[in-house]
Specification:
The protein has 6 helices and 6 strands. The chain has helices at about 5-15, 30-45, 65-80, 95-115, 125-135, 145-150, and strands at about 25, 45-50, 120-125, 155-160, 165-170, 175. The radius of gyration is 16 Å and the shape is globular.
Amino acid sequence: MTRKGREQAVALAERLRNLPITHIYSSPLLRAIETSVILANRLELDYEVVDALREYDCGIAEGRSDAEAWQLWQALFDAWVGERRWEQRIEGGESFYDIRERFVPFIEGLVNQYGSTKAGIVCVSHGGVYWMMLPLVLKNVDNELMARYGFDYTSCIVSEWRPGGMYCVEWNGHIIEETSGIA
């Protein structure tokens, strides 16, 4: 983790200090664990590593930053978001369906376990997973809202359980309306 990354994680922990956080769940990828350690230390909590929050696997493009790898990633993103070709995958990687199969049941399990309590849950994951999966679990989030507000490192998306499902109430400091997803 870079110095800037550590500073951003500390700033996020300070912001979360005012919320009733009781549990931290982390992707198993190192950058997420490093963030979770900082949050856990600052908030005086433990954290749990769960595979459901792992960034999606880009197969043969994984760990690469060359032009071909970025073209593969962009083609996959376009297939999923623009064309709804959910079965598409980069060779050796995951499809949208694969991500959904691990992410959605995990979130549903958290809702079932904590939805009627005062528990505050932090999930440390990755922009790719959140971009694809948040519209499936948050009733008022769509691609337009995500494009408007984006994902930065340590983005803070606050949601709550309400009758009828989970709703985003705040996206990086922007208050989100209940039904429209438009602030």
